[in-house]
Amino acid sequence: MQQETVIQIQNLTIGYENKIIISGINADINAGELVGIIGRNGAGKSTLLKTIRGLLPAKSGKVLYFDRPLDSYREKELARRVAYLQQNVETGFGYTGLDIVLTGRYPYMKWWESETDEDKSLARDCMSYTGTLDLAERPVTEVSGGQKQRILLAKVLAQQTPVLFLDEPTTGLDMVYREEIFRFARELANMGKTILMVVHELDLAAAYCSRIFLLGEGKLLADGRPDEVFTEELLSRAYEADITVGKNPKSGRLEITTRENPQAKEKEKDLLKKICVQGS
């Protein structure tokens, strides 16, 4: 059965001000795909996500959602199609977990309307799914980073969109919360949602994502299944380092590490000797 194409990216060039970061991106993204966007710092991962969402203007090219150009959508109409979990979300003092999750219902409300009982019931269901219902009445300023991130995930779920954008959703979380976020994303994709996710944890991306965008050398360097993209040659090019790819014999998951550069190591030792010598 043919999959529904949800997002079409056509010859897209992205950047900011006068700087071009990535040129000539072409990709069709289908319903139910979990796409991990990876690459070294500064490769353009978050810029790509923001441009596809329409938060940054494209330098050139087109983005279409459900065969309609991005710029043909009104903001609230697009917000009923795409939910976006950005980096480093600031929450106002005194807002509870439930208050935050209920903001995900704004695309469906008139400016004069308040949340309905149905909205509140849905918000609580989303919090229950993300394991945060017990935080519904707690001020968000009093919860941990992992709890806050799961509350924010409940918020984008309450938006009830077919597409989710998650920009580094695991930053600052411990390994339990990191894997939990990936597991949530995989379960949602299995239910038919399309998810684009900027990630740094290559091992988790390999385990949970169905597709990988690898950014490097000013372009979309690779686009394919994790086993196609996570090769030593491609990763070494993208990250400009000597990278090894192996498999953990117990878990069966990929293990991705860098090889030590003997020349660089000797230089570091010389510098450390100078740094660590106590002053007289």
List the helices and strands and how they pair.
Elements: E1 5-16, E2 19-30, E3 34-38, H1 45-53, E4 60-65, E5 68-69, H2 75-79, E6 82-85, H3 97-102, H4 117-129, H5 145-158, E7 163-167, H6 175-190, E8 194-198, H7 202-208, E9 211-216, E10 219-224, H8 226-229, H9 232-239, E11 243-247, E12 254-258, H10 262-276
Parallel strand pairs: 3-8, 3-9, 6-7, 7-8
Antiparallel strand pairs: 1-2, 1-4, 4-5, 9-10, 11-12
Write up what this structure looks like:
- The protein has helices at about 45-55, 75-80, 95-100, 115-130, 145-160, 175-190, 200-210, 225-230, 230-240, 260-275; strands at about 5-15, 20-30, 35-40, 60-65, 70, 80-85, 165, 195-200, 210-215, 220-225, 245, 255-260.
- With about 280 residues, it is α/β, with parallel strands linked by helices.
- It folds into two domains: about 5-80 and about 160-275, Rossmann fold; about 95-160, no CATH class.
- A six-stranded mixed beta sheet has the order 6-7-8-3-9-10, sandwiched between helices. The chain has a four-stranded antiparallel beta sheet with strand order 2-1-4-5, covered by helices on one side.
- The termini are far apart.
Brief synopsis:
By secondary structure, this protein is α/β, with parallel strands linked by helices. The chain has 2 domains: 5-81 and 161-276, P-loop containing nucleotide triphosphate hydrolases (Rossmann fold), CATH 3.40.50; 93-158, no CATH class. The protein is built from 10 helices and 12 strands.
Structural class: alpha/beta
Q: Superfamily at the CATH H level of the largest domain?
A: P-loop containing nucleotide triphosphate hydrolases
Helix content: 25-40%
Series of H and E elements:
EEEHEEHEHHHEHEHEEHHEEH
Poorly predicted tracts of residues? none
CATH fold-level assignment of the largest domain:
Rossmann fold
